[in-house]
Amino acid sequence: MAGKINLTDQLKKYFGFDNFKGNQEPIIQNLLDGNDTFVLMPTGGGKSLCYQLPSLLMEGTAIVISPLIALMKNQVDAMRNFSEEDGVAHFINSSLNKGAIDQVRSDILAGKTKLLYVAPESLTKEENVEFLRSVKISFYAVDEAHCISEWGHDFRPEYRRIRPIINEIGKAPLIALTATATPKVQHDIQKNLGMVDAHVFKSSFNRPNLYYEVRPKTQNVDKDIIKFIKNNPEKSGIIYCLSRKKVEELAEILQANGINARAYHAGMDSATRTQNQDNFLMEKIDVIVATIAFGMGIDKPDVRYVIHYDIPKSLEGYYQETGRAGRDGGEGQCITFYTNKDLQKLEKFMQGKPVAEQEIGKQLLLETAAYAESSVCRRKTLLHYFGEEYTEENCGNCDNCLNPKKQVEAQELLCAVIETIIAVKENFKADYIIDVLQGRETSEVQAHLHEDLEVFGSGMGEEDKTWNAVIRQALIAGYLSKDVENYGLLKVTDAGKGSAPLEGVTVSISSTQTTTTGSDGTFEIGNLPLADYTVTFTKDGYASIVKKVVMADFVDGIATTDVRMGGTEILRGLTIDDLKAAEKWYYNEYRGGRNAESYPHWDWACNYMCTMDFRGDWEEQNEGTTLRIR
């Protein structure tokens, strides 16, 4: 039956729209067909319609689990505007008295109510569970589903109880929706809700109409904001602050400067808070200054700017909050003010929380700091964080692309990072890697005896922010990966180890011998005469090989001091004896299981050297011959 419905006609009938946006139609059809559905759709993509329309088409009442009272009120008001029946949508939460709850239940039992919004806390109350058992449930919708995951930006422990309660009430199709979920958060949501096999509908995170900018936060930040607003008169805007105190202070400052602004935070009395929200939606005020409690699920398409007075606690939160600008596809400016002092405040806020929660919070905060300090395209960084690659070199709509920052050659720095990660066996996070590079004898470094490593202190000439930038860009470029399951341990990828094959690249040895790489990336080199020769890597093979070579940890006193990039000598003093010894170690020890004690200083240099597969007759007269690579 559901499959025969013309969904476009129903869309026009109930909501007045001529066409669906993005994946809305297949999502709705999948739910009508009785399938579990996971929806990852950016703010402004029309998530709400994905459960609102099917609720009107299916028999029974849809249960929508939503985290905020303000969100429920906004959604219920919107649905009632589309229907002649006031009882078509209701909510149950702590704001209702017993008489109001009785009226909601009466409408549900009379078959008037198609959508019932409940907070997770209300859903778990025994009297509500008992009542819902007697109701025909069309489907369950979990809105803002990222609240389920500890790695989500707004973790709510009560969301973890949703699946058991659903099982207790009665089985029905389930749809989970969120605008912000990394691959880790998505996995957490599906696993916790018991919907690992659900149909997944994932829209692009790219919002081309949004302009992203990070500005330094100075003592003049209030003046900067006032100037920005006055340069954008009569435009709707949201300013986010971390504390309620700052919300009220800034709102008063804006009002004193002739700006039509109001405050919004959870500590205000309900009537004032609701009035301010409604006035903003009805364009009676221009600017709302709020904590992050404001805006979730609020349907105002013409917000023209979102300002973050303080750096957000996570990139998920930042993405969702900035996503409230330009939902109509028009202009949307996203301005963030950043100072390292804000990070220190946020870290202090975490003190006293469980250790695991602190670790997760710190990792999320580091991601945000890296974003703020990066010279890379903001859009590229954001999309990469959510598991989506942005291939354009210049997005043309962020501060870093419109006004590129000065860049420096950092290939040697990248190599130092990779060498250090490998030296510590890929078992540590970015801040620890930087401690080793900077030669800091912290208690943790000493506990692992890493102050004895050759790489210890090798990066003392650079600032921490430089190393953070190198690590961030290495992650984006695919040289490193982050083990999210283990709180951000850094791993070196195959690309970082330089193990990609170089099929078809020509290698010239002196003027008489040439050999070509095989499909497995190996080289065949014949006899070398008694003389110094240069191995020249041509075309793209030059850069590729150089990257592989400089990532090695070479023999003490021979090559280490002469490892460079860019057309100068890369290795000096490696003899045929060295190559023979390395080859023997590699095949006898490394391939049979790494045994560092048998040839410790070759660590993984020989991994590179010996995958070249040196062959030929290593005759006595060749002993002492030097191979130079330029």
Q: What ranges have pLDDT less than 50 throughout 5 or more consecutive residues?
A: 499-580, 582-587, 589-630
Order of strands across the main sheet: 3-4-2-5-6-1-7
Biggest sheet record: 7 strands, parallel
Number of helices: 24
Structure overview:
- It is a single chain.
- A seven-stranded parallel β-sheet has the order 3-4-2-5-6-1-7, sandwiched between helices. The protein has a six-stranded parallel β-sheet with strand order 8-13-12-9-11-10, with helices on both faces. It has a four-stranded mixed β-sheet with strand order 17-16-18-19.
- The radius of gyration is 30 Å and the shape is globular.
- It has 24 helices and 19 strands.
- The longest helix is centred in the middle third of the chain and has 19 residues, at 355-373.
- Residues 499-580, 582-587 and 589-630 have low confidence and may be disordered.
- The protein starts with 6 loop residues before the first helix and ends with a strand.
- With 630 residues, it is an alpha/beta fold.
- Helix 13 links the parallel strand 12 (303-308) and strand 13 (332-338).
In short:
By secondary structure, this protein is of the alpha/beta class.
What are its keywords?
about 625 residues; alpha/beta; seven-stranded parallel β-sheet; six-stranded parallel β-sheet; 24 helices; globular; disordered C terminus
Secondary structure elements and their pairing?
Elements lengths: L6 H9 L8 H9 L4 E4 L8 H9 L3 E5 L3 H13 L7 E4 L5 H12 L5 E4 L1 H4 L2 H7 L4 E6 L19 H8 L4 E5 L4 H10 L6 E4 L7 E7 L4 H10 L5 E5 L3 H13 L4 E4 L5 H12 L5 E4 L12 E6 L6 H8 L9 E7 L1 H11 L4 H19 L4 H8 L13 H4 L8 H13 L6 H8 L5 H5 L16 H14 L2 E4 L5 E4 L13 E4 L3 E4 L16 E5 L2 H11 L25 H15 L14 H7 L15 E3 L1
Parallel strand pairs: 1-6, 1-7, 2-4, 2-5, 3-4, 5-6, 8-13, 9-11, 9-12, 10-11, 12-13, 18-19
Antiparallel strand pairs: 14-15, 16-17, 16-18
Helix pairs in contact: 2-3, 14-15, 18-19, 23-24
